[in-house]
Each structure stands twice: as C-alpha cells, then as structure tokens.
Amino acid sequence: MKKITFFATAFLLVALANTYAQEKKKYKIHTVAFYNLENLFDTINDPNKLDEASPIMEMKIETGDIYKKKVHNMARVISDIGYETAHNSPVLLGVSEVENREVLEDVVNDPLLLDKDYGIIHYDSPDVRGIDVALLYQKKFFTPLHTSSHELKIYDDASRERIYTRDQLLVSGKLEGEMVHIIVNHWPSRRGGEARSRPKRVAAANLNKRIIDSLQTIDPYAKIFTLGDLNDDPTNASVKDVLKAEKDKEKVRFKGIYNPYYNMFKKNGLGTTAYRDAWSLFDQIMFTKPLLDKDYTSWRFYQAGIYNKNYLVNKEGRYKGYPLRSFADGGFTDGFSDHFPVYVYVIKEMDN
C-alpha cells in the first residue's frame, strides 16, 4: 500500500511540475485584421475616376469637416481592433474601399495611430469607381520583402466588355523574422443579383487560388493569409468549392485552407454586414495549414473573431442592430462603416 501511495504521489508531483512549466510559458501575440472602410474618399475630384459619385462628394457642403471626422473614426476603430487581448492595434491590417494612398496617410497620421508607425502598401486599381485595397503594417514588427498587384479580368455577359474591378494585393514579408504572405481582396459586388453576379466572384476566387498555388509551389509550407470583403459568405461556391476552405481544423489537408468564419456564420448566425434584416459574413480571414500546427515556436493561429463592439452598432431606427455606417440617407451619420472588422490572433512562444 505504501509503495502504491509513493508512486501515486510521485506521479502527481511530476504532473504538477509539468502543469506549472506549461503555465510559465509566455507567448507573443499579434492581430491580423481586415476592415472595409466604407467609401473612404477625399474631397478632391479626380477626373480619371467616378469619385464624384462617392457619398462625401455628393454632399457638396462641409465636406472638409466630414472628411476629417470620417478619417478620425476609422483611426479609432483600427486602434481598438485586437487591443483587449494583444494590447496593440493590428500589426497587419488589410483594408478596402479606399480611394488612394493619400487617404490612408491621413488615417495612419491621426493622433490615435501615429505612435504605431504604420507603413502603407497600395496600388491604384482599375476599378471604375476608383476604390482600392491596401495593407497597413506596423514597421516595428513587419518587414515587407515583395509586393505585387494581380488584376482580375472579368467581362459583361451581354456586351463582353471588360468590367474593371479591384486588383488582389499580395504582400510577402517577415513578421518578426518569420516569412508570411498576405493577400488582400475585395471581390465583385452582388449588383444585379447574387446568381447573376456569382461568376464574377468565382473568377475572383480562381485568381486567389492561383496566387496561393504559386506561393505553395515555391514553399509548400508557406504561411498564407487571404483576407477581405469577398461579397460572398463562407458557404458560397467561391469560398467553399473553389478555394475549398475547410470549416474544421482537423480536416484541413496539406496545402489546404482553413476558414474559421464558416461555423460563426452557419452555426451561430453571425455576420459582418446586414441587408433587409439578413446578416451576411462577407468579411473573412482564411489561412493555410502550417498556421494550425501545434508547435508554437513559430507563429500559429490562436483565435478568430468579429470586432462588433457596442459603439459600432446602430442603436435606433430601422437599421437598429446593423453596423453604424458613415453615410446614410444622403448624409453623414458620424458613424464608422457598413461592415464590422474581422481579426485573427497569432501566437508564438517567447524565448526564455
């Protein structure tokens, strides 16, 4: 009996020691996020774009003050995303619906973000409205090594004329010394109806898949994030069938993609944007299998979420509960965006 008690006690002590050792492990944590900035246009008419149809240009009066408020509101949200857990704003942030680099410079130079020292990667796209995607990155933590813009060629079914839309932005670089790749997307809208416009988003997904495949040809273990406003839900063909994004971590195959937003949408009914009392989860962040491995000596996925804090939600009227957008009924609401941001946390063991 004493012998059994001795071994039981010894086993317990070893177990407690292991638990204590695990508890003592410390982790670095960073936020990777995406935010549709809802018509972040300046007040200057660009003759090469249809920017005069943007909400801020259509207002005609007090546009300078409105623009400053809009910029500050965007900076407020960006500064808050991930702060609760990471104690920092996103280290990597994809954005969409921006007119040019200059509006992003105004955002990152807002007092709320100035100390983050964000860099900007932006290309002018051929989108007919003049809206682009871009990547913001904190220079202290991320070093871009290669950037490229990939055009999406799609055509009108009837006229066969080209439809000019957003390019897809690829940025490859070192996140605190470790190579990662980020693809920023804003896929074609559902204008004309979901079914009629579906082939355009399938084409966007195919372009996205080719970019991912090319990266994995060079390095099968590449850590790739593809993120953006897809104008499709996780359950739609573009995401589920073309990208073959998997809803369960355990089922992600080698070179496969995991979509943490599938179950949020399908099981929990969550969304990032609403229309006619129905939620859609168009804003998503997906990534490749190496980020799911359990070896935390390099960057791994920890958690995903939708940043839908109370101040971003409309409190009254017919849009109660919707994202508190910036522009509605021909005026400026002093709101934020018609989309909630999305984010993922990545973690890594700290050196002792």
Uncertain residue segments:
1-21
Helix content: 25-40%
The CATH class, by name, is Alpha Beta
Q: What distance lies between the first and last C-alpha atoms, to the nearest angstrom?
A: 41 Å
In angstroms, what is the radius of gyration?
22 Å
Q: List the helices and strands in order.
A: HEHHHEHEEEEEEEHEHEEHEEEEEEE
Oligomeric description of these chains: single chain
Structural class estimated from helices and strands = alpha+beta
Strand fraction equals: 25-35%
Describe the structure.
The chain is of the alpha+beta class and 352 residues long. It has one domain: Endonuclease/exonuclease/phosphatase (Deoxyribonuclease I, Chain A, 4-Layer Sandwich), CATH 3.60.10.10. It is 27% helix and 30% strand. The chain is built from eight helices and 19 strands. The strands form five sheets. The protein has a seven-stranded mixed sheet with strand order 5-8-9-10-15-12-11. A six-stranded mixed sheet has the order 3-4-2-1-19-16. A two-stranded antiparallel ribbon has the order 6-7. Strand 13 and strand 14 form a beta hairpin. Helix 3 crosses helix 5. The longest helix is centred in the middle third of the chain and has 25 residues. The chain is globular, with a radius of gyration of 22 Å. The two termini are 41 Å apart. 42% of the residues are buried.
Topology, pairings included?
Elements: H1 2-24, E1 27-40, H2 55-59, H3 63-80, H4 83-86, E2 92-98, H5 101-108, E3 118-122, E4 132-138, E5 142-150, E6 154-155, E7 162-163, E8 168-175, E9 178-186, H6 194-218, E10 224-229, H7 237-242, E11 245-246, E12 257-258, H8 261-266, E13 273-275, E14 278-280, E15 283-288, E16 300-306, E17 327-328, E18 331-332, E19 342-349
Parallel strand pairs: 1-2, 9-10, 11-12
Antiparallel strand pairs: 1-19, 2-4, 3-4, 5-8, 6-7, 8-9, 10-15, 12-15, 13-14, 16-19, 17-18
Helix pairs in contact: 3-5
